[in-house]
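Why does residue order matter? Because the sequence determines the fold. Keep that principle in mind as you read this record.
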Amino acid sequence: MIARIWHGWTTPENADRYEQLLREEIFPSIAAMGVDGYRGIQLLRRSPANAGEVEFVTLMRFDSWDAVKAFGGEDYAAAHVPAAAREVLARFDQRSQHYELLADLTP
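Structure:
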């Protein structure tokens, strides 16, 4: 299993709008791609005290490197950030990080 991790930051004023965009448009469009070996996505949100920004982390799961490449293309680490997301994000990772998932103790 391969985990693809990406970070984006927005203002507190745009945070709910960005979360809604992810849930209602971006995540469904990823699922609709029908990539064989795509196993879902998780969304994390954090508002550090006095930071003035809200951090979002997405964690996607794939069965294999081939599935990651089917999703991301030749430059599979490049971040896929739609124009609507760029409008509300203050900054974001240009490249995603990939890790091999060695253990999952989820019941």
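The chain has a mean pLDDT of 95.
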